[in-house]
């Protein structure tokens, strides 16, 4: 049987926001998010995932880790197995340790990134051609190379690319729309990373919309970005606008709140 599309998912892990999410990391302080606002956005996200046809496992909040709602960063998941990562910022490293046993319960194969470097899931984009690993302030060369070896164990090809200066994660600036098309900021497109793909450039001023999320037949896009939504609808995508105003205050978008994979046993 051929592999399902890389955006075909039947399984998702999310984690409830902790009250401490209001203290989450951010590059520019635009004020704290409200806990209630984050909960509302997270609840709508879970519902949108279920509407898109995936089974959602909801993990309990972790007060000691303000950013732990962003489950994408401490792990990587594939139909073939999972990789426990090493988030490249001190306050988030411990999230990997808490996530590992959950993955060991759900996957037959779980590989630990060796302690030689750091890698955040937000820097990893899975495409039909390869897994792209973006170097950033969170993912260093040693982590990226160690991750390539882990991915090879799962039979996955990978390539190391760069993230624009000052951008948190590689996927802050891009997302996969279908097998051959990426939604991408002009600054990341300029790096040439997506030369082999069709690209849709995010309208100027809506850069944060680039972290959209294709799940099965829909593309979730931040509802604060009407020009991006219009562009994608005109291009024929089935867009589901999602509120990301509060999580946006702690530098997050749509991919970061879930781990997504296709479980062939389901
Ligand atoms: C952080 O700085 O780690 C969080 N405040 C935001 C993480 C966003 N993660 C993601 O996009 N994968």
UniProtKB/TrEMBL annotation:
It comes from the Bacteria. It holds the Pfam family DDAH_eukar. It comes from Paracoccus broussonetiae. This is Arginine deiminase family protein. The lineage of its organism: Bacteria, Pseudomonadati, Pseudomonadota, Alphaproteobacteria, Rhodobacterales. Belongs to the DDAH family. Coiled coil: none annotated. Gene3D superfamilies: L-arginine/glycine Amidinotransferase, Chain A. Keywords: Hydrolase. SUPFAM superfamilies: Pentein. InterPro entries: DDAH-like.
